Amino acid sequence: SWIRYNTNPTVITVQKDYRFWYLQFPSTTFCYVDPVDIEFAKDYIQRKWKISSGEKFDYYMDFVKKVANITYENLDNIAPFVNNSELVNVDIIDLVLKVHAEPRYKTTIFSTDYKNITFQPVLTEMGICYTFSGTITDYLTPNNEPLNINSNSPTPSCNFLNSLCYARAENLPRSVLYYVHYPKEVPNIVDKYYPVQENMERDTTFTFWEMTSAPELRRLSPSQRRCRFMDEPMDNTIPVYSYNVCRMICRRNLALKMCKCTPHFYPYPGEMKVCNIKGLNCLSSHSKMLITLEKNDGTPIECNCQMQCEEVKLFLDRNSKRTWAYPVPRDIKYRWAVDKYSKTRLRRDVIYSFEDLLVSLGGTASFFLGCSVLSFIEIGYYLTLRLYWFVNRKHND
To answer: Membrane-crossing residues (predicted)?
Structure first.
């Protein structure tokens, strides 16, 4: 009974009452293909190195662009600058923030109830990106301070009876890569993205698979239920939990182990050393391992990342794009939507609770010993009382 309670107390059930379900509308995160604003970069170089033109200026501009575009996939781009003593101590986080292009966009969503929701900056493994209607991303801001901007705004939700469940981002100033994901999740370096370029509109629609959980599930520990809720973080560095956040923490810890520093695109560094260009160059030799989280022999690195107790998996249903030729206005936009609703969903339920454990233990004790749990309590009470009077009498004597 004790083993069952600790290892297998839950069950997955199938629900069919789909007409009463409300699905959280998927979030989207877009990242600029080239995030550097040239004017911001010029100002940064002039303030930092007191130079505004010439070969040296071009060299610094190339450095700024390479650093601002750093991800795990292109760490080797930093190699030409590693031996320059002037660049070793550059504050990379400060550089990235100061040269990053400002976001411009226009959003449209299926209901005016959600018209006040906007894109918010988020720090990801792809750099600084922008998320629409994210819940978890409010805690992953570039300045490491939770935003909670959308906390008073209604969360967009869709119903089987609502055939129009979509949103659109348009008037974007430059090419982007965008991700579509569950609001309580954040994209990471291995997730699928969709590119949108100048004079292009992309339309992506999704189907979904949803997992919910019973309220009683919180009474179990994460190891018992084999999943975690959003407010059960893995450690004290990032104050929320999701599967991708756990993988991000795993990559960060791996980087810290191999090169004694953590990349600048992770929030809440705390006392951990943030990599300078030499640290990033060190990580470049381990980039494949950091991306795949597998050793050189293909063995998975142990991250202990559990699934979320409540999650929505999205599956691409349709992906179409349209392009225009000049003199059509230069425009970049994309649309994401849910067109088909699932008529089944899964739910995690508790099938063997602590009360069931007590009943089972009581029944076993009654069968073999002829007593109940109450009998053990009475014996404990009797022994405690006798011990009290014994100590009290000895003290009086």
So the answer is: 357-384
**Model confidence, pTM:** 0.86
Number of domains in the chain: 2
Tokens 């995690």 belong to residue: 348
Is the Cβ–Cβ distance between 92 and 276 less than 8 Å? yes
Over the stretch 22-37, which tens digit does the pLDDT of each residue have? 999 999 999 999 999 9
CA distance 248 to 272: 15
Q: What is the DSSP string of 256-316?
A: HHHHSSB-TTSS--TTSPBP-HHHHHHHHTTHHHHHH-B-TTSPBP---PPEESSEEEEEE
Range of the domain at 110: 14-35+105-350
Q: H-helix or E-strand containing 98?
A: helix 92-99
Q: Does a structural domain hold residue 93?
A: no
Task: Let me know whether 306 and 334 are in one domain.
Answer: yes
Condensed to tens digits (0 to 9), the pLDDT of residues 182-211 reads: 999 999 999 999 999 988 999 999 999 999
Same-domain status, 279 and 386: no
What amino acid occupies position 347?
A: R
Checking if the pLDDT of 139 tops 60, the result is yes
Co-location of 256 and 367 in the same domain? no
**In the predicted model, is pLDDT for residue 6 greater than 70?**
yes
Q: Are residues 366 and 253 in the same domain?
A: no
Residue 40, CA distances (Å) to 101, 128, 295 in order = 8, 15, 40
Whether 242 is covered by a domain: the verdict is yes
